[in-house]
Amino acid sequence: MQKVDGFSQPMEFTGIPETSSWAGYDFLQWTGSVFHPGLDYNFGAGEADNGKPIFNIANGIVEKCIYWDGKTTGFGNHLFTRHIAEFDIECDGTVIKAGQKFYSHYCHLKSINVKEGDEIEKGKMIGTCGG
Predict the structure, then answer these.
(1) Which helix (H) or strand (E) holds 112?
(2) What per-residue confidence (pLDDT) applies to 45?
(3) 102 in a domain, yes or no?
(4) Residue ranges with strand state E in the chain
(5) Model pTM score
(6) Separation CA 109–CA 12 (nearest Å)
């Protein structure tokens, strides 16, 4: 597996978090009933982002694909990608050491275009945005 040598955005530019250009929820933003557990890269308003491509943020392996059962609320179709850092990576004061595993989680997908065990490169389309 190729180690993480850098990152890319999971979808086309959708604004800057915590500014008026941002259409989605920020990490741990209060939604009125719970703290939001991730970033929503919403594109515009309503369903403007429905069907837009979603890209893998870094080299890794698809660890788990979970398909929506049509009943539960929450993540919908979603997947986890496992990554291994090639060098020390610092993000918001947290350091991921070279050789350490970490995961990315992609939620609210309309479609999933990869399968468990696939080795995927940074920037590869892994699915499309859902609701």
Answers:
(1) strand 101-112
(2) 61
(3) yes
(4) 53-55, 60-66, 77-84, 89-91, 94-96, 101-112, 119-120, 125-129
(5) 0.78
(6) 15
Domains contained in the chain, number: 1
**Could you tell me if residue 5 is inside a domain?**
no
Strand 125-129: give its sheet, edge to edge.
53-55, 125-129, 101-112, 77-84, 60-66, 119-120
Q: Where do we find the tokens 């870094």?
A: 58
Please give the Cα distance from 19 to 65 (Å, whole number). Answer: 32
pLDDT tens string 73-122: 778 899 999 999 998 888 778 888 999 999 999 988 999 999 999 999 99
pLDDT tens-digit readout, 92-105? 788 889 999 999 99
List the domain range (segments joined by +) for residue 61. 53-129
- Both structure tokens of 92: 């918001």
Distance of CA 115 to the CA centre of its chain: 16
